Amino acid sequence: MENKHRRRHRADIETQHRELREMLGAIEASAELTQLLPMLEQLRAELQEHFADEEREDGGLAEAVGATAPRHLRRLAELLDEHRRLLETVDELIVRGRTLVNGPGRDLVRDARAFSRQLKRHETRETELLTDAVYADIGGG
Fold first, then answer.
1. pTM for the whole thing?
2. How far apart are CA 83 and CA 91, in angstroms?
3. Alpha helix (H) ranges present in the chain?
4. Given Cys at both, which of 56, 73, 94, 128 links 60, Cβ 3.0 to 4.6 Å?
5. What is the Cα–Cα distance from 70 to 52, expressed in whole angstroms?
6. Which residues, in sequence order, are CB contacts of 63 under 8 Å at separation 6+?
7. Is residue 94 classed exposed, middle or buried when 0-12, 13-18 and 19+ CB atoms within 10 A define those classes?
8. What angle do helix axes 2-29 and 61-68 make, rounded to 10 degrees?
């Protein structure tokens, strides 16, 4: 029974690793901050749950590695310790992303839209001038 539990948990962790790799692939392919930020937030939530599963005393990685290959416990400890740093890094990325989206990024979008409206008005006035000059003054009127 105990071996069956370990095998099931190992399969769960392998499934989580596959899902995380898929999320990371989507993050690496993203070029839009507005799409990237929700992906990072989802990744953060998944990582927290995944790391908690790996760190569990009952059925976690320590139990699996310690039971089958105790010589790897130091490497495992290093990897488990890295979980905190990885979560801190993704938290920092999320904060930076929110700052850009809600601050300078939002301001840039607002300013670009205002510029677009200004340029459209300019082009409209040029068209009106050409219409008046060519059609009304020269040949139309």
1. 0.72
2. 12
3. 2-29, 33-55, 61-68, 73-102, 104-130
4. 56
5. 21
6. 6, 56, 57
7. middle
8. 120
Indicate the length of the chain as a whole number: 141
* Torsion angle of the four alpha carbons 15, 18, 23, 27, in this order, in degrees rounded to the nearest 10: 160
Q: Counting Cβ atoms within 10 Å, is residue 44 exposed (0-12), middle (13-18) or buried (19+)?
A: middle
Q: 84 is written with which tokens?
A: 């905190």
Whole-number pLDDT of residue 46: 95
- Token digits of residue 51: 């790391």
**Per-residue model confidence as pLDDT tens digits over 11-63:** 688 899 999 999 999 999 998 988 999 999 999 999 999 999 899 888 888 88
How many Å apart are CA 15 and CA 53, to the nearest integer?
12
pLDDT at position 47: 96
Say if residue 1's pLDDT is above 50: no
Average pLDDT over residues 128-137: 82
Q: Which amino acid is at 48?
A: Q
**Between residues 66 and 107, the one the model is more confident about:** 107
